[in-house]
Each structure stands twice: as C-alpha cells, then as structure tokens.
Design a protein that fits this description.
Low-confidence stretches: 96-134
Strand content: 15-25%
CATH topology of the largest domain: Chloramphenicol Acetyltransferase
CATH architecture of the largest domain: 2-Layer Sandwich
Radius of gyration: 25 Å
Order of helices and strands: EEEEEEEEHHHHHEHHEEEEEHHEEEEH
CATH superfamily of the largest domain: Chloramphenicol acetyltransferase-like domain
Mean pLDDT: 84
Largest sheet: 6 strands, mixed
CATH class of the largest domain: Alpha Beta
Structural class: alpha+beta
Length: 404
C-alpha cells in the first residue's frame, strides 16, 4: 500500500487546500502524472505523483485544508489486491475510542475503493449517517480552481449552471466586486516575509558583486536571432541562465540545500526563476535541467514557465525542486540587487539592468553593454573565495556565448 501525502511545495508551506482531484479510484497513475490541484498561499498548484500504482481510496475531499504530510490518498502497488489493502488499513488503523470515532466521523465519508462490497461488514467501525456527511457545494472543476486562485468562497455563491452548479463565470463575476485577490496577495506577502525573516535570522549571508561585459554576448545573440521569427528568438535572460547553470557545475557547493545541519549537493541544476505576478507578489519556480538543455529549448521552457506562473498552473515539482534562485530586475530599472537566500537553498544570484558603460578594452576606454551580477551565499557552506571564482567563471562563459 502506498500512502500519497500532501507534499511540501516550499520551505514556507505548512498546509494546503484540496481544490479538486484529477484521478478517481481505479485509475492508474505514473510518476509525474497530475493527480490533484492544491491551493497554497501563493498559487493553485498541479500536484504530481512520485509513485506508480492504482488509486484505491481518496481520503482527502475537495475544499478540505490539511497540513503538509497528511495522507491524501491510498494507492495499490503492482500486484496488490483490494483484500490486502483492507487488511493493511485495519493493521494501521488508530485504536478506536469514543473520542476519536466522534472526531473522525465527518472524514469517514470517502469515495468507495474499487472492488469494495456495498454490504455492511460485521465489524465495529464507526458508521456515518447521510445527515452527518459534509455538504459539498456543486461547482464545475474549472470554477473550483478559479475560486481557489481568487480566494472566493464557493458556499457564498449562487450557481447559474445546470442544477444550480457554480460556473467559472459566476466566480469571475463575484471576484470583480470582492477583495479576494487582495486577500491572496496579503497572505502571499506574509508568507514571503516569514520565509525571508527566517533566512536573514538563520543563514549567515555573504555578498559579492561583479561587473560583466556583454558586448560579445549581445553581438552573438543578435546574429543568432537574425534569421528567426520574433516568437523563436532567444532572449538574453535565457543566455544568462545557461551560463549560470554551467558555472554551477564547476562550483556545486552553491547548488543544493542546507538541511539537518549539513549541505546536500543537488544532482542537477534547477534554477528557481523569480517571476513577478501581475496581481502582485513573487514566486520562483524551477526551470529544470538548465545545464543540459540547448538554448532554444531553454528559451521555450522559460517562456512557458512564466506563462503558467501567471496563469496559476504550475506543477508541484516546479515549487519543490529549485536548487538556487536567479532573479533579474533589469527590466524594472534596477542596476543592482542584493538577494535574500530562500531556505533550504544556499545561494541566490541577481542580475541588474544591461547598461552602456565605459570599459577598458585593449587599453582603450570604450562604451559597451554591462551587467552587474550579485551573489548572496550561505557562509556555512562556502566562503567568499568560492563565490568569487563562481562569478569569474560566469563572466568567462559569457565572453564565449557560442559555446553555451
């Protein structure tokens, strides 16, 4: 029997609200398949399975808010029978007492597992009468997901769909007059603030900055894009991410996590790309395997990540996998950014705006495009020497963009 639990989708997440299931009892699931949509303080997230099996029982019901680590569903392993699953459940059931049965009764009305008998079993398990079962508001799956994004209480709406079901249009109309998005942003700001306060309190930051000339990179990128359609062009942001990923392969102590008192290096480079949301707020989902992807593929992945982040359709792995954060505030007019490390990561890299500045080339002062890269890193894992070598490698890589 496999217990599918609510995963932690970031160090600042302690609970989530189930919006909808994407599977039902009897469905086969594979690693990476979407099984549920869960609302957190930042977004409604598509939760992926990290197991392979068959859905046996859906324990958590839509609209329930549960702590991280709570069992949401039970899956049958390959070859496991429903009878064996029932035996496993009985063996792992908590001792029944009047108090626990009373508390557990509302949650006992769950979807029947495949192959379960409809006749009563001769045991003493608590039964739930129809009157005690929780009432679920009738709404379309799209309406539930949108309501979670906008923090709209479905129970307060009157549905205009078939049989009074709430539609996405009903939710949108309500949100135009309700302060729900503001509530989400307020909660997000509190979450971000708590994570950053913890970071500054617990992580001994050190900061380094380096000015990097980008004349070669700018010229090469213009040539690379010359014969491409606008939608196929590679932006400087993708080139910078590629250079960062390769530099991190040379300096792996900046790419990983500090947990349980020691550093755990990551096996791949998954930069968390800081993305500002149109409604306000900030998230940094992972762009996977940047070190091994070609520039065109990386650009498509980056564009898709930004689009889905702003549409609140990110996957759970994109929240749990970032191995370092990269933030680029150049388009906002900033020349320099001093980032705060997002735990349990051990570094954050920032890029300012690309500006024409005086730079000495072969003994002659010339104006050329420059960017200031800043590194904040965890002194428990590395020191300034490592950070300086990383920034030097990053600059060197950007002088030969054709090799990225």
């Amino acid at each position: 029997m496999i217990e599918f639990k609510l995963p932690s989708l970031g160090a600042d997440m302690d609970q989530g609200k189930l919006v909808e299931w994407k599977v039902k009892p009897g469905d086969a699931v594979t690693k990476g398949s979407i099984v549920a949509v869960v609302d957190t303080s930042k977004s409604a997230i598509d939760v992926e399975s990290w197991h392979e099996g068959t859905v046996y029982e859906l324990v958590t019901q839509p609209d329930e808010t549960i702590p991280v680590g709570t069992v949401m569903a039970l899956l049958l392993e390959a070859g496991e029978t429903p009878e064996a699953a029932e035996a496993w459940k009985r063996a792992h059931a908590a001792p029944a007492t009047a108090a626990t049965e009373s508390m557990a009764a509302p949650a006992a009305a769950v979807t029947s597992p495949p192959g379960a008998s409809v006749t009563a079993e001769p045991d003493t398990r608590a039964r739930v009468s129809p009157a005690a079962a929780p009432v679920r508001t009738r709404a379309t799956p799209a309406a539930r997901k949108r309501a979670a994004e906008l923090r709209v209480d479905l129970a307060s709406l009157a549905g205009s769909g078939p049989d009074g079901a709430i539609t996405i249009e009903d939710v949108e109309k309500c949100s135009q007059a309700a302060p729900a998005p503001v509530n989400r942003m307020t909660k997000m700001r509190k979450t971000i603030g708590a994570a950053m306060a913890r970071s500054k309190r617990e992580i001994p930051h050190y900061y380094l900055a380096s000015d990097i000339p980008l004349a070669r990179a700018t010229e090469w990128l213009a040539s690379y894009n010359a014969q491409r359609n606008v939608t196929e062009r590679v932006l400087m942001a993708a080139l910078l991410l590629k250079a960062v990923a390769i530099a991190l392969k040379h300096h792996p102590n900046l790419n990983g996590f500090y947990r349980d008192g020691h550093f755990q290096p990551a096996s791949a480079v998954h930069p968390g790309v800081a993305i500002s949301l149109r409604q306000g707020g900030l998230i940094a989902p992972a762009l996977h395997d940047c070190d091994s992807r070609g520039l065109d593929d990386l650009m498509r992945g980056l564009a898709d990540l930004v689009r889905r982040a702003r549409a609140f359709t990110l996957r759970s792995s994109e929240f749990s996998d970032p191995t370092i954060t990269v933030t680029n505030l150049g388009d906002g007019g900033a020349d320099l950014v001093h980032g705060v490390i997002y735990p349990p990561q051990v570094a954050i890299l920032g890029f300012g705006g690309i500006r024409e500045r005086p730079w000495i080339v072969d003994g002659v002062v010339r104006a050329q495009p420059m960017v200031t890269a800043t590194l904040a890193a965890d002194h428990r894992v590395t020191d300034g020497h490592t950070g300086a070598l990383f920034l030097a490698d990053l600059s060197r890589l950007l002088q030969t963009p054709e090799n990225l």
